[in-house]
Amino acid sequence: MSGRFCALFGLIVASIAQSATAAPLQPNSKWHVDYDEAQCTATRNYGTDDKPILLVLKPSPYGGSIRLLLISAGASTEPARQLEASVQFDGQPRIETTALKYSGGQRTVRSINLPMADVKAQQNAKTISIASAGSDYSFALSDVPPLLGALEKCRVALLEFWNADRPDRIREEARPLRRLAELYSPRDYPRAAVR
Hints:
A 9-stranded antiparallel beta sheet has the order 1-2-3-4-7-6-5-8-9. The longest helix has 19 residues, at about 1-20. It has about 200 residues and is of the alpha+beta class. The protein has helices at about 1-20, 115-120, 145-160, 180-185, 190-195, and strands at about 30-35, 40-45, 55-60, 65-75, 80-90, 95-105, 105-115, 125-130, 135-140.
């Protein structure tokens, strides 16, 4: 009996050690930066075409934070919920945070906000690990400094486009054509949201 227990214990320890030292996922594409009208995003696929695992970076409009989105194949049947999460660059201490987990179409999304200063301080890291609710992903990183530069250029261009970079550029405040109460009523509120 003790021999079986020792063998089982050895297998468990080996399994834990193997998962802790598992090689990070390698990208199968370059970073794709999307200069959208309303947001700037950078996306990279670490999975396959039929089972993508996307790592997405999205800076906030004024650059104080950045959203990390981890998008994997397969929709979750559970409702959106907030989870304990952590982010780690290389062997640095883990950054304890939270993640919003939800489904979008046939994908499961985990969304984490981090201070931009934390990401810039680790822009030369070779790996990033994201853990939340039993899922632990590690990604190989490359080309992050020029990527952050491209996202910053996009962010500044968006502020200029929407006249949000300098308050003095706004010549006249926007005025509604009609009162909000005339446009929407309680009947317009989605039933699913009420539930």
